[in-house]
Amino acid sequence: MKTETTPEEARADLPIHSVAVIGAGSIGIAWSIVFACAGINVRICELDDTRRDSALASAESLLSEMEGAGLLSQATAGILERMSVWEELSDAVSGVGYVQECVVEDVDVKRELFRQLDQLTPHDVVLASSTSTIPSSKFASDLPGRARCLVVHPANPPYFLRVAEVVPAEFTSPTAVATTVSILKRAQIFSVHLNSEIEGFALNRLQGALLREAYCLVQDGVISAVDVDTLVREGLGRRWSVIGPFTTSELNTRGGLRQHSEVLGPVYARLGLERGHENPWTPDTINTVAKAIEQNLPFASWEENVRQRDHAMIQIASRLKGFDNPLVQCESE
C-alpha cells in the first residue's frame, strides 16, 4: 500500500532554484561559485562592508582564471549573473530553498545565526553549516526547526576539491539529508555521509593523523618540515589524488589488502605503539615547523601565496580535464 508523501518529503525531490550563502569569506565565495556554476541563483549575505563590496570581484577573478583554463562550461559573465550580494539576512534568505552558512568558527556566533535563520526560513529549508570542527548539535539542538540542520563540511577549496562531508545530528531528518545530497550532486560535489557526529569530522581527523606524525618526525629531528611537505606533495599527495589510501594498499601488493595487512600490519602496529605515549605539538616544534614553511613560501603575502596555490590547482585541473579514471566509480545518473 502506498503511503501518503509528506510535504517535506515531496520537497526533497524538487529542484532548488536559489540558495543563500551566509558569509563572503573564502569559503563563502567558493560555495557561491560551486552553486552558481550548477545553474543555481546565489544570494551572498555579508555584514562587513569591505567583504560585501569585494565579493563579486573576488568571484569574477577566480571564475575568469578557471574559464581561461577551460574549466567552465559557460562564460564567467553568465555565472556572475546568478550571483548577488545582500546586506540584510532576512532579505537574503527570503524565498531560498537551501542555506549554506560560512561564518567564523565560533559556536556562539553560529548558535545566534542559526537561531535567526530558524525564525526567518520555513522549516523545510535545509540549514547547512560549513564548520570544520563543530557538530551541529552544539549550536542547533534547541531550535524548533533543528530537524533541517546539519553540517556540510567541504574540502577547501570546493570548486577544485569536489567532496564534502554531510554530517547530520541525531535530530536531523532523513529528508534534510536527502535534500542536501541532491543539491551537492547537482553541483558535482561528492557527498561523504558520516553516520554519527564526531568532533573534527572525518576529513580533519585523517589530516590530523598525518600532521601528528609529521610534527613528531620534525620534533625528533628525523626530517625537516620542508622535506615532509615534499614527501607528501610529490609522493602521497600525487598518489592519493588519483586513488585513496585503501586502494593504494590494495594495488601496492599482489594479493591486495589482505596480503598488504599481513605483511605490513605488524609494522604499522609497532609504529603505533611507538607513538602510544603523549606526543603534543609543543610550542618549540610548532615554531620550528612554522619558520621553515614560512621561509620556503615564494611570497611574503599570504594572499599572494593563496592566489598562486589556486593558479597551480587550476593548471592541474585543466590538465586532468576529461581524464576518465577507471578506478573511481561514480553513481550513474
UniProtKB/TrEMBL annotation:
<keyword id="KW-1133">Transmembrane helix</keyword>
<feature type="domain" description="3-hydroxyacyl-CoA dehydrogenase C-terminal">
    <location>
        <begin position="200"/>
        <end position="259"/>
    </location>
</feature>
<dbReference type="InterPro" id="IPR006176">
    <property type="entry name" value="3-OHacyl-CoA_DH_NAD-bd"/>
</dbReference>
<keyword id="KW-0472">Membrane</keyword>
<dbReference type="InterPro" id="IPR006108">
    <property type="entry name" value="3HC_DH_C"/>
</dbReference>
<dbReference type="InterPro" id="IPR008927">
    <property type="entry name" value="6-PGluconate_DH-like_C_sf"/>
</dbReference>
<keyword id="KW-0560">Oxidoreductase</keyword>
<dbReference type="Pfam" id="PF02737">
    <property type="entry name" value="3HCDH_N"/>
</dbReference>
<dbReference type="Pfam" id="PF00725">
    <property type="entry name" value="3HCDH"/>
</dbReference>
<comment type="similarity">
    <text>Belongs to the 3-hydroxyacyl-CoA dehydrogenase family.</text>
</comment>
<dbReference type="InterPro" id="IPR013328">
    <property type="entry name" value="6PGD_dom2"/>
</dbReference>
<dbReference type="GO" id="GO:0050104">
    <property type="term" value="F:L-gulonate 3-dehydrogenase activity"/>
</dbReference>
<feature type="domain" description="3-hydroxyacyl-CoA dehydrogenase NAD binding">
    <location>
        <begin position="18"/>
        <end position="191"/>
    </location>
</feature>
<dbReference type="GO" id="GO:0070403">
    <property type="term" value="F:NAD+ binding"/>
</dbReference>
<feature type="transmembrane region" description="Helical">
    <location>
        <begin position="20"/>
        <end position="42"/>
    </location>
</feature>
<comment type="pathway">
    <text>Lipid metabolism; butanoate metabolism.</text>
</comment>
<dbReference type="InterPro" id="IPR036291">
    <property type="entry name" value="NAD(P)-bd_dom_sf"/>
</dbReference>
<dbReference type="GO" id="GO:0006631">
    <property type="term" value="P:fatty acid metabolic process"/>
</dbReference>
<keyword id="KW-0812">Transmembrane</keyword>
<dbReference type="InterPro" id="IPR006180">
    <property type="entry name" value="3-OHacyl-CoA_DH_CS"/>
</dbReference>
<protein>
    <submittedName>
        <fullName>3-hydroxyacyl-CoA dehydrogenase</fullName>
    </submittedName>
</protein>
